[in-house]
TrEMBL record:
It comes from the Eukaryota. It holds the Pfam family Myosin_head. The keyword Membrane does not apply. Keywords: Actin-binding, ATP-binding, Motor protein, Myosin, Nucleotide-binding. Residues 3-710 form the Myosin motor domain. InterPro entries: IQ_motif_EF-hand-BS, Kinesin_motor_dom_sf, Myosin_head_motor_dom-like, P-loop_NTPase. ATP binds at residues 99-106. This is Myosin motor domain-containing protein. GO terms for cellular component: actin cytoskeleton; cytoplasm; membrane; myosin complex. Belongs to the TRAFAC class myosin-kinesin ATPase superfamily. Myosin family. GO terms for molecular function: actin filament binding; ATP binding; microfilament motor activity. GO terms for biological process: actin filament organization; endocytosis. It comes from Daphnia pulex. Coiled coil: none annotated. The lineage of its organism: Eukaryota, Metazoa, Ecdysozoa, Arthropoda, Crustacea.
Length: 902
């Protein structure tokens, strides 16, 4: 039976297999949440679970204090809100939700948000559609439409990271949500121009194609186009139309109806742009999709020729003062790349602008009036960021950024958690742990990534200096700079490895980094281009000439960003530099907060949900990899720094009571017993510590305790065995004595019997002699009697022979003698010895019967009386000296008569 407990750090053995078993057994029991110290591990049920997030549950978690400890996303929300309201810990609170794609980050963040919104609605006496919690929930479908897409792993995958910052004012129960702000990270804008096989573009394209009215489609020239290259209409599904209405409703509720029309126009322009292809005729670039070019230019408020020129002609400028040199693009791919750059740029600007409008709505509400100045605002931040990513091939700049962010978040978590542990151990009256020792490795790895001489350093430098390094040179530079960095390091941390060189001696384009979640191999192919993310200047100046107010609006904001993203020397910031800045900013926010973590885990790659068989829905290796990637194993390792094994005083005392010196100790209280035990074994003192609230032990300490316990037991066992053997020997001896004594008793008894028997035998012999005499007498008597009988018989025969000459006895026969109903059917004939005739001896109506057969016999006697069965037979018998009587055979009896008696 696996341990099934609500907090993984309470497991007796803190290793990944025990953690896996525990989580699996909880998943089987439909318990999808588990604590891992301060972290909440959320297993994805992959389907709606009845009542898991219902209003009843919200109410329960909002009002019942015992639910605090129950692992659930609402419990975490409740705990965080309480900390914020009552000023427990830091002023600001943050919840970081992470996990791999499809693990349930967005769902959990949404449930959390809806719980916080419900708590707020409870506080608001009058529900108001302009309340922040209502607006926040409305903004979700809009952001999902613009920023989510169908991927191979998840039908509704968020392709951007987001930080939702809820601003509260007030103290205690009167704390109120007054505004909110949503910040996004790393929108995957490459998806607008190109998607991997089996994946889709952002939902908004399909929603628009499925839901727009015919008139609007005609206006945007979206009708009768066989195929859209960037978002095929064939990929639209039934859900898209319904979601289109949800998006439109969200835009209306956020009062962004005007933006909606501009949005459709811009998206239609992107569809048209995506369909433009390039051909070269007489050394000039042309296109066969002129109508798409015209439509795109019209919708963007641009001149179509100028637009086409931006795609096909490049401007070079050596310095700010020297004139630009104009050259046509050298290949179709180059033209397509410039077209895609414009598509990406416009989409990104549109996404940022819509987000900004949403943020404006979330900031200007009625709630903050009146009390805003009395209290300092408190933030509750929800961070839903990409999880750690590692593909078998082609990990590039995006994965480097994502994994760097996760590495920093994990480092942040480790540092904070270790500090907490330090405080905890100090409160327990124990030595604190050496923080530097434990976090040095992690810190080193981050500096390998973003330090002055690091992966980021090399990539940025190559972008700024523009020395024309190819992909393999970049790879070699990364490696050599990292080798230099590792020289002075005290202990060799998990570090970037040598670039992999294939056997064909092809130039290396891969380097690998051992992250906390595992080794990731990155490819430097096109990494520099991605890092530059250059928008040609001529493209920006063309856009600035647009007649569309919406493009002007987008550009106005992006122009600000454009300026802000340039360094002091006028160079444009690279993607890595911008990302690092935004991450630094995020870390500053998190530093000001008490951070709570939700680690989402997907139990299997396929869409098999919790109602299927356990073997189908639980993929051990996949879950294990995720536990590592999202830092659960790391969390547990951190929990185990110092004294990884913790148990209550009672448990320790029960387990190791044999180690206390005397039996009397066992009557003491558990903590005192623990203290006595640790005093009895001073070698164990530094490994097993008696804390104020529980026992703390190292693996070594428990090993020692177990060894001594075994020793004590062995000693006790040998004493018991000795005693038992002694007991057996005594028992055997007793049995021998008993056997001997019983033999004596039996022999004595036997002798007694023998003597008695002897006496009896002589008496018997005497009696036998007497018996023999009496037997002889009886033989004589019998012989005499036989002889007498024979004599008499002979005499009788002689008399009978003499009578045979006499006439046979005559019996009178009644005429009804053979009637079965007659009262008396047969008579008896009395054969008198001295009479030759048979006569009936009794009336009534006796029948005299002629017994002719008697002639055949040589003796006389009595013939039995026969009566019908219904009549009770009465017999009259007389003694006779004759040995035989005559019985007529049944066949010769009159009908209805039976033998009654002989
Ligand atoms: N708590 C839950 N209850 C029911 N289903 C869930 C839950 N969490 C996730 N799911 C299911 O898993 C799917 C993926 O979840 P979600 O979109 O939240 O993953 P994600 O981690 O945000 O993925 P991505 O990083 O790709 O956006 C959801 O569409 C939903 O079907």
């Amino acid at each position: 039976m696996h341990e099934n407990i609500e907090d993984l750090t309470h497991l007796k053995k803190l290793d990944s297999s025990t953690v896996l078993q525990c989580l699996q057994s909880r998943y089987k029991q439909k318990q999808f949440y588990t604590w891992a110290g301060p972290t909440l591990v959320a297993l994805n049920p992959l389907k709606d679970v009845p009542d898991l997030y219902s209003k009843r549950m919200m109410h329960l978690f909002a009002h019942e204090s015992f639910t605090y400890k129950t692992p659930h996303i609402f419990a975490l929300g409740q705990r965080t809100l309480r900390h914020l309201q009552w000023g427990l810990g830091k002023t600001h609170q943050a919840i970081v939700v992470n996990g791999e794609s499809g693990a349930g980050k967005t769902c959990n963040a949404l449930y959390l948000l809806s719980f916080l919104a419900a708590m707020e609605t409870n506080n608001n006496e009058v529900p108001n559609s302009s309340n922040i919690e209502v607006l926040l929930c409305q903004s979700n479908p809009l952001l999902e439409a613009l920023g989510n897409a169908q991927t191979l792993k998840n039908e509704n995958s968020s392709r951007f990271g987001k930080l939702i910052r809820l601003v509260y004012l007030g103290e205690g129960a009167s704390t109120q949500l007054v505004s909110a702000h949503i910040e996004t990270y790393l929108l995957e804008s490459t998806r607008v121009a190109r998607q991997a096989a089996g994946e889709r573009n952002f939902h908004i394209f399909y929603q628009m194609l499925a839901g727009l009215s015919d008139s609007l489609k005609t206006e945007l020239e979206l009708k009768d186009v066989p195929i859209w290259e960037i978002a095929s209409e064939r990929d639209c599904n039934a859900v898209d139309e319904a979601q289109f209405h949800a998006t439109v409703a969200a835009l209306e509720k956020l009062s962004l109806e005007d933006t909606a029309n501009q949005l459709w126009k811009l998206l239609a322009a992107l569809l048209h742009l995506g369909n433009i292809k390039f051909t070269v005729t007489q050394e000039t670039w042309t296109t066969n999709q002129r109508h798409h070019l015209e439509s795109a230019a019209r919708l963007l408020g641009l001149n179509s020729n100028e637009l086409f020129q931006v795609f096909t002609v490049r401007n070079f400028q050596a310095g700010t003062k020297s004139p630009a040199v104009v050259r046509p693009c050298s290949s179709q791919n180059e033209c397509a790349a410039r077209r895609d750059t414009l598509i990406k740029l416009l989409y990104r600007m549109m996404f940022d602008t819509v987000l900004e409008s949403v943020n404006e709505k979330l900031q200007h509400t009625n709630n903050d009036q009146g009390q805003g100045h009395l209290f300092t605002p408190k933030y509750l931040c929800i961070l839903d960021l990409y999880g750690f990513e590692s593909f078998q091939y082609g990990n590039s700049l995006e994965q480097l950024c994502i994994n760097y962010a996760n590495e920093r978040l994990q480092y942040y978590f480790t540092i904070n958690y270790l500090k907490e542990q330090q405080v905890h151990l100090a409160n327990e009256g124990l030595n604190s742990i050496d923080l530097d020792e434990n976090v040095l490795d992690k810190h080193n790895l981050i500096s390998f990534l973003d330090g002055p001489v690091s992966v980021f350093g090399v990539l940025n430098e190559e972008c700024y200096l523009n020395r024309g390094c190819d992909d393999s040179q970049v790879c070699i530079r990364i490696q050599s700079s990292l080798n230099e960095r590792t020289k002075g390091v005290r202990s060799m941390p998990p570090s970037p490895r040598m670039p992999r060189v294939s056997r064909t001696k092809a130039p290396p384009v891969e380097f690998a980094i051992s992250h906390y979640a595992g080794l990731v191999s990155y490819s430097t192919v096109a990494m520099l281009d991605k890092n530059r993310d250059q928008v040609p200047g001529e493209m920006m100046s063309l856009l600035s000439k647009s007649k569309s107010p919406f493009i002007k609006l987008l550009l106005g904001k992006d122009a600000l960003i454009f300026n802000a993203t340039h360094t002091m020397n006028g160079r444009r910031h690279t993607v890595l530099a911008k990302f690092k800045n935004s991450l630094d900013n995020l870390m500053r926010i998190l530093n000001a907060c008490d951070v709570h973590y939700v680690r989402c885990i997907r139990p299997s790659v396929s869409e098999i949900h919790y109602t299927s068989s356990p073997s189908q829905r639980w993929d051990q290796d996949y879950v294990d990899a995720q536990l590592k990637a999202c830092g659960v194993i790391d969390t547990i390792k951190v929990s185990s720094f110092g004294y990884p094994i913790r148990m209550s005083h009672e448990e320790f005392a029960t387990r190791y009571q044999y180690l206390s010196s005397s039996r009397r100790d066992r009557n003491l209280d558990a903590k005192e017993i623990c203290r006595r035990i640790s005093e009895n074994y001073p070698q164990m003192a530094s490994e097993v510590r008696v804390g104020n609230s529980q026992m703390y032990a190292t693996e070594k300490g428990i090993e020692m305790a177990e060894r001594w316990k075994l020793q004590v037991r062995n000693q006790a066992a040998s004493i018991v065995q000795r005693w038992w053997r002694e007991h057996l020997r005594r028992q055997k001896a007793a049995v021998t004595i008993q056997n001997w004594w019983r033999t004596i008793v039996v022999v004595r008894a036997a002798n007694k019997v023998k003597r008695w028997w002897k006496r009896k035998r002589s008496a018997a012999q005497l009696l036998l002699k007497v018996g023999q005499i009496s037997n002889s007498v009886r033989v004589v008597q019998r012989t005499v009697r036989r002889w007498l009988a024979r004599v008499r018989a002979r005499r009788a025969i002689r008399q009978l022979r003499a009578q045979i000459s006499c006439p046979p006895p005559v019996a009178q026969i009644d005429e009804n003698w053979c009637d079965s109903n007659a009262t008396l059917k047969v008579v008896s004939l009395n054969w008198a010895e001295n009479n030759n005739c048979a006569k009936p001896t009794q009336s009534p109506s006796l029948i005299s019967l002629q017994l002719s057969r008697l002639n055949y016999f040589y003796s006389v006697g009595v013939i039995s009386i026969r009566r019908p069965p219904s009549v009770r037979a009465r017999f009259i018998t007389r003694k006779t000296c004759l040995p035989f009587s005559f019985i007529p055979p049944k066949t010769q009896l009159p009908t209805g008569l039976t033998d009654a008696y002989l």
